[in-house]
Amino acid sequence: MKMSNTRIRIFFASDIHGSDLCFKKFINAADAYKCDVIILGGDITGKFIIPIFNRGGSYEFRTGNETYSVDSKDELEKHLYRIKASGSYPFITSKEEWQNLINEKEKLDEIFNDLIIESIQGWVEFAERKLAGKRVKCLVMPGNDDSYVIDPVLNSSEVIINPNEKVIQISDRLEVLSLGYSNITPWKCPRDIPEEEIESKMASLVSRVDAGAEVIYNIHVPPFDSGIDYAPELDDDLRPRVGPGGQLLMTPVGSRAVRKYIETYQPLLGLHGHVHEGRGFSRIGRTMCFNPGSEYHEGILRGVLIQLEKNKVKDYIFTAG
Description:
Layout: E1 7-13, H1 20-32, E2 37-40, E3 49-54, E4 59-63, E5 66-70, H2 73-85, E6 89-93, H3 95-102, H4 105-131, E7 137-140, H5 151-155, E8 160-161, E9 167-171, E10 174-179, H6 195-206, E11 214-219, E12 230-232, E13 250-252, H7 256-265, E14 269-271, E15 280-284, E16 287-291, E17 302-309, E18 312-320
Parallel strand pairs: 1-2, 2-7, 3-6, 7-8, 10-11, 11-14, 14-16
Antiparallel strand pairs: 1-17, 3-4, 4-5, 9-10, 12-13, 15-16, 17-18
Helix pairs in contact: 1-4, 6-7
C-alpha cells in the first residue's frame, strides 16, 4: 500500500525489550497520534526469565529485591501482567525443575526462545486485530539484541512489515532504508557485527534506493559521536566508570560506518535507538537524527512523532507515556 498524500505522520520508538505494555502503546499510537506510519526500531525482545515456583496452589517468585508469595489465581494474574509489562518472561515451574534447567544451558535456552516466540506471536495477533483494515504501515524491526527466532514470526504477519535489510517505499518519492544490526558491543549480542560488515550492508541497501527519492534511515545503531550515542564507559568487568566527582563517564558507542553513510548520502531522517541513555536530536549536515531513548522497564514508551509535508520535515515532538 503506497501513500500519495503530501502530509505523512510518522511515530518512531525503539528498545522496548519485551515489554507487553510498551508494544501495545506502540500499536495504539497509530490511532492516538493519527499516524500514517509507525516504526519500532529494534531490540524488541526481553532479557530475563522470572521463574515462578508452583507450591501446589500457591506461588512464590522474586523480582528485583522483592520476594512474593501468591495464594490465588487472580492475584497471580496481576503479577504476571506486571512482569510482562516490565519486559521479562514469567515461567511457572518447580524449584527442582528450575535448578535442573540452570545446569542444562541448552534446555534453558530452548525454553527462553519458546517464551520469546510465544510473546512475539501474541504481539503479531494484537497488531493484526488493531490495525486490520487501516491505512497504516507498521514496521517492526529486530535489533542487535534480538534472537533470529523472531524473524519467521514477524515475516508471517499480514500487517507487520519486518523491514530489516530492505528499502520500502512509503509514498511518492519517499523510502525507508532499514538495518537492525550494531557494531560489536561488550555483550556480543546475536546481531553484533563488525563495522566492515555494517558498511557492506549499507552499500547494498543504498544501491537499491530510487534515484531522486527522499530517504529515511531506520538504523538501530546511532551514528558515532553524534550526541545520541553516548553511553556509560565500562571497565574490564563491565561496570560503569566514574570520574573524580563520582559522575558517570560517558563515551560514544555508535557506528562509524553509519555516520559515514549519513555524511555521504544525507538522508532526510535518521531514526535510531540502541543507546537507552541517548534520547535526543542531532543534525549531521542536513540529516535530522533522532533517538527517543528507552524506559521500557517502567512500562514507559518513549518515542518521537514526526510530521512530513511534501517529503520535508515540518515538525517533530518527543513523546513519553
